[in-house]
Write a structure and sequence with these properties.
This protein has one domain. 59% of the residues lie in helices and 8% in strands. The strands form 2 sheets. Strands 1-2 form a two-stranded antiparallel ribbon. The protein has a two-stranded antiparallel sheet with strand order 3-4. By secondary structure, the protein is mainly alpha-helical. The protein starts with a helix and ends with a helix.
Length: 206
């Protein structure tokens, strides 16, 4: 019963969460002479034109030091959980720019509300089945990773899109089951293990 109610809560907030994230890097596609290509930055050095593509930073981490067998077991379990839910947090991040561009096309609150409702229905159709398979613990990790990727807690997102009353109601429901929509990501504290795992996923190590 506890898990079922928590997943229902997650299904309610996820379509709203998906509307927020960090702006992705876009490279505009171009066609020239029937050949597909990309617009990229370039620099001229000694008369030569050189492609200039910024590379993302990679954090090199030493092997995680475990204090006990119990901690090592927890780390192994977290790897499975994080690898399962991390892609959803990336989806959140990648949607913001597109959603905001479309929101600018609507002038009235009614039009924007109808657009968000349509988007919500589309996302429910696509993700509901997958989210129902998440466990209670995986759902909590997902909410933390969403805060990591967007800098916005689930509570703030629900409040922004659904209003303060809805945010208060679902926060109350979450607390009944030992959770909170206000979960924040703490990479140097409680979520140190998760941060280590996410970094290694981003580096392609795991």
């Amino acid at each position: 019963m506890c898990k079922r109610e928590f997943i229902l809560l997650l299904l309610f907030v996820f379509p709203s969460i998906i509307l927020f994230g960090q702006e992705p890097i876009h490279i505009d596609s171009v066609k020239s002479g029937g050949i597909n290509g990309y617009l990229v930055h370039a620099i001229i050095e000694d008369g030569d034109t050189l492609i200039h593509v910024p590379l993302r930073s990679i954090i090199i981490r030493p092997p995680f030091k475990f204090k006990s067998r119990k901690q090592k077991k927890r780390y192994s379990r977290l790897i499975r959980y994080v690898k399962k839910v991390y892609p959803y947090s990336i989806i959140v991040s990648n949607q913001l720019n597109d959603i905001h561009q479309h929101m600018d096309e609507y002038q009235t609150k009614k039009e924007k509300k109808e657009f968000l409702k349509l988007k919500e229905n589309e996302l429910k159709k696509e993700f509901e089945g997958k989210l129902r398979k998440l466990t209670y613990s995986q759902g909590k990790i997902l909410m933390k990773l969403i805060d990591r990727e967007t800098g916005i807690t689930t509570y703030e997102i629900v409040k922004e899109l659904k209003g303060s009353l809805n945010a208060f109601f679902w926060q109350s429901v979450a607390r009944l089951f030992g959770s909170s929509l206000k979960l924040e990501y703490d990479p140097k504290g409680d979520d140190k293990m998760i941060e280590d795992i996410v970094t290694r996923i981003e580096n392609g190590e795991i």
